[in-house]
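Methods — Computational structure assignment.
A single polypeptide chain was analysed. Its primary sequence is given first, followed by the predicted tertiary structure written as structure tokens.
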Amino acid sequence: MRLVLAAVSTIVLAAACGPTEPAKPAALLPSATAYADLQKLLIEAKAGDTIELGEGRFDFTDGLSLDVDNVTFRGAGQDKTFISFKGQTGAGEGLLVTSDGVTLSGFTMEDAKGDGIKSKGADNITYKDLKVIWTGGPLATNGAYGVYPVESTNVLVDGVTVSGASDAGIYVGQSENIIVRNSRVEYNVAGIEIENSKFADVHDNVATKNTGGILVFDLPDLPVMGGHSTRIFNNQIVENDTQNFAPPGNIVANVPTGTGVLLMANRNVHVFGNTFDKNKTAHVMIVSYSDTIKDPTYNPLPRDFVIRDNTYGEGGNDPQGRLSPLAPALGGSLPAIVWDGVTKYGDKSEEVRIVVREAPEVGFVSLGLGTTPPDLTKAQPSMTRLPDAVIEEPPAVVLEHDKSAAAQAAG
């Protein structure tokens, strides 16, 4: 009878507990076969899978790739899981993602021969709590980009640290609906760059010790042009004083060392609530694209910009690059906000509307260069701000896959 009761009890308990859930796959640990094991997991992944790396250092000699939608790839945390490409034999990315709905989080990537992490055509992607660094410091031989989403819609970069990129630490190009927040960029040529993109919020970041802190560009001869509607707010943009180490010919090789924010040939950019300090060329520079233009549809002028309610410390006291000869004519230093004063290109001219709503003591200069390509020897500096204008601020960017924002909204 006792045996019968025991058997019945076992059946009842099993029924109550339901079917046994499959065991969670163990985190992959460093080993001689770790690269092959990891790439196999990435290739064979299915939508909804999580691929996890444990603590330790993974030394890889080749790049990784992921092309499966809705996969999470995560480590045990920054400075816990290290993926090193110091011995990488090729020149490609450390990790290339070409699928949608991917989340990358919780690891530190070191010394990729090319870009650190690149995602192309990868919509609804999340880069969160990551670090991408080149351990040898700022060198022209480092990879161009640390975190590099391009040609994508709905991009979230949150809590990312990048150091040592020879172009831009965090770069988002030819994309739409972008948030870059809570991140730190240092010892890069450009800290954060938004290029040929629209609807971007760049906020609550620290950009320090770069050549230039935060850049917003629109360039010609690319599949996507006409960048617009970017907000740069609540950032710490300080001590950007690393000598420009971009390879010759690179567009950011022209960024003067000591630039806080550089805005070029874009539309409807709003810069507000930021803290600027110790950027030795200028805190904010607004310029036109100055190279030869072959594309008749490209507009090289900056237009409809609003600079307001920022905090300015020391800066402009040691201008670098092409702007350095202008300092003596302006009393030895450049003011906080510098505009090249270009309003004409080819046979076209525009009312560009550069709105500066700062306290009167915040310096501003238009260099009065008039037409592009600008000739700095013909500068006609004026400290007079342009008339105020009503320029509608872009709406806040909202991403459906932004779980942090969803949690805050839910209370």
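Note: The first helix runs from residue 2 to 17.
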